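Listing S7. Sequence submitted for prediction.
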Amino acid sequence: MTTYIMLINWTEQGVRDVRSSPKRLDAAKKQLGDMGGAFKAFYLTMGEFDMVTVVEAPDDAVIARFALLLGGGGSVRTRTLKAFPEFAYREIIASLG
């Protein structure tokens, strides 16, 4: 499984219905699970982004579909970062020669 960090902001629609946000989070967790992925962490944040998640998915196509489905709901906009764990980071750096 590949790890991704998703940076999330509420849209105006999402903020207007913020009280439903926990239900939307539960639905998103189920949706990603049905796609073969999983939420590893979720944070409400202060600053540039409203929420941050750490998720896993089988491949880039799955996380792309998931991000498109989230955005299509109209309540959030996402930015997705592919994350390399420390061992992969070390291998990448070592391969530089």
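Caption to Listing S7: primary sequence and predicted structure tokens for the chain studied. The longest strand covers residues 2-10. The beta strands are 2-10, 38-44, 51-57, 76-83.
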